[in-house]
Design goal:
alpha/beta; Rossmann fold; 5-stranded parallel sheet; 9 helices; 12% strand
Length: 199
């Protein structure tokens, strides 16, 4: 089965794009949600994380300790250590999920598709891009984040130019052209690609 990855920076609209694909009957795998599910339900992951970072990584009520986790992410070395534990489990969860789907192709939504190496788990990649000022405005309306926090997040993500270079397809979400029409056109291309992929 053809596997397609969708990525884009904060406020780019990749979740909206995925909702349109879903309305077209395409199954969507949300990598961020998969990580949350693994933290909550994967006993092997809990053991690995506590072994690597100490018992504080989970709260006394057996929930992932978000403030502690955010503290780990301030250290590049600890972030890399965490990613080496978590990312392979997410990749496997995606493969297991994809095997259960009955569709021409599936979509994996991942904010850090290339940074995590998840691009290697898919056959084609889509980048959703929008100008930075539009993204900031969207995130301000959606989340309770300061301008500085939003800009800090954007600075750590791939730029629009980098996404154009790395992705097989680009969807422009700047309001100048219909998002639905762009997704419909891409859907037709991916249906064609998936037919070729199966043959």
């Amino acid at each position: 089965m053809l596997k397609v990855g969708i990525t884009g920076g904060i406020g780019s609209g990749k979740t909206t794009v995925c909702q349109i694909f879903s309305q077209l009957g395409i199954p969507i795998f949300n990598a961020d949600q998969a990580v949350k599910d693994l933290y909550a339900n994967h006993s092997g992951l809990k053991i690995q994380l506590q072994s690597a970072f100490g018992s504080e990584v989970y709260t006394p009520t057996n929930q992932i300790n978000i403030p502690f986790l955010k503290g780990l992410l301030l250290s590049p070395e600890k972030t890399e250590k965490l990613n080496k534990i978590v990312h392979p489990l997410v990749f496997q969860a995606f493969y297991d999920w994809a095997d259960q789907q009955n569709a021409p192709y599936v979509v994996k939504e991942a904010a850090i598709l290339f940074e995590s190496g998840a691009n290697k788990t898919v056959d084609s990649t889509i980048g959703v891009i929008a100008p930075e000022e539009i993204r900031i405005q969207r995130v301000k309306q959606r989340d309770n984040r300061s301008l500085e926090e939003i800009q800090s997040i954007i600075s750590k993500q791939l730029s629009n130019d980098e996404l154009r270079e790395k992705c097989d397809y680009i969807i422009e979400n700047d309001g100048s052209q219909s998002l639905i029409e762009q997704v419909r056109e891409l859907h037709a291309q991916l249906l064609h690609e998936s037919a070729h992929f199966r043959s």
